[in-house]
Amino acid sequence: MKYIDLSHKLNKDTQVYPGDPKFVIEKFSTADDDYFLSNINGSPHTGTHIDAPYHYIKNGKKVDDLDINTLIGKATILKTKREIVNDSINIKDIDIKNPIEKIVILKTEWYKHWGNDDYFTKNPYISNELADMLIENKVKGVAIDTCSVDKIGETKIHKRFLKNDIWIVENLTNLNKLSKNNYYSYFIPMNIDAEASYIRAFVKDE
């Protein structure tokens, strides 16, 4: 048995969503001071992260309110049949070979653009039609290898999922290593009083 890491590494060069504060790791003290200590500043929406309902829903759940049992479990991998650039992902664009589990990982291959200028400007995004299908299947979480479930500058898909108590994970990576239709998945955030959190996302490869 092994585990496949789906998380981007965070460092001073990590890209951030347009308009978000830059992610900074500063040395607060060094070995010359007897120990190393870092000071970290940045949005919790940096890198691979989770959005809780409070991100857009007043009085919605914050990250520390999320049921940890919904963050761990069997996930269905939905792969796009073609490369999609700056356009919506519709039901006809994905392979659905198995029943939809409570967690869905949407594999678009857009993570390969990570580090390029177009990563945050031309991402594929979830259509209303696909969002409807996932909501009707009563999923608990949607994870994707793009910067957003929405088209850049829009928020409607975020709001639809979060209003239905569906958490969102964005900026997955290494999805080329997922060859099966289902994996046991883990999306582990900090226990933090906030609308979002950095996470370690990984799956069990049995």
Account of the 3D structure:
This protein is mainly beta and 206 residues long. The protein has a single domain, classed as Putative cyclase (Glucose Oxidase, domain 1, 3-Layer(bba) Sandwich), CATH 3.50.30. The chain is 8% helix and 31% strand. The protein has two helices and 13 strands. It has helices spanning 128-136, 156-163, and strands at residues 2-5, 24-29, 37-41, 49-51, 72-80, 88-89, 94-95, 103-107, 125-126, 141-144, 167-170, 182-189, 196-205. The strands form three sheets. A seven-stranded mixed barrel has the order 4-11-10-8-5-12-13. It has a two-stranded antiparallel ribbon with strand order 2-3. A two-stranded parallel sheet has the order 6-9. Strand 10 (141-144), helix 2 (156-163) and strand 11 form a beta-alpha-beta unit. The longest helix is centred in the middle third of the chain and has 9 residues, at 128-136. The chain is globular.
CATH topology: Glucose Oxidase, domain 1
Q: Can you say what the CATH homologous superfamily is?
A: Putative cyclase
Q: Tell me the count of domains.
A: 1
Assigned CATH class: Alpha Beta
**Unreliable residue runs:** none
User: Which CATH architecture is right?
Assistant: 3-Layer(bba) Sandwich
**Estimated structural class:** mainly beta
Concise synopsis of the structure shown:
It is an enzyme of class 3 (hydrolase). This is Kynurenine formamidase. 8% of the residues lie in helices and 31% in strands.
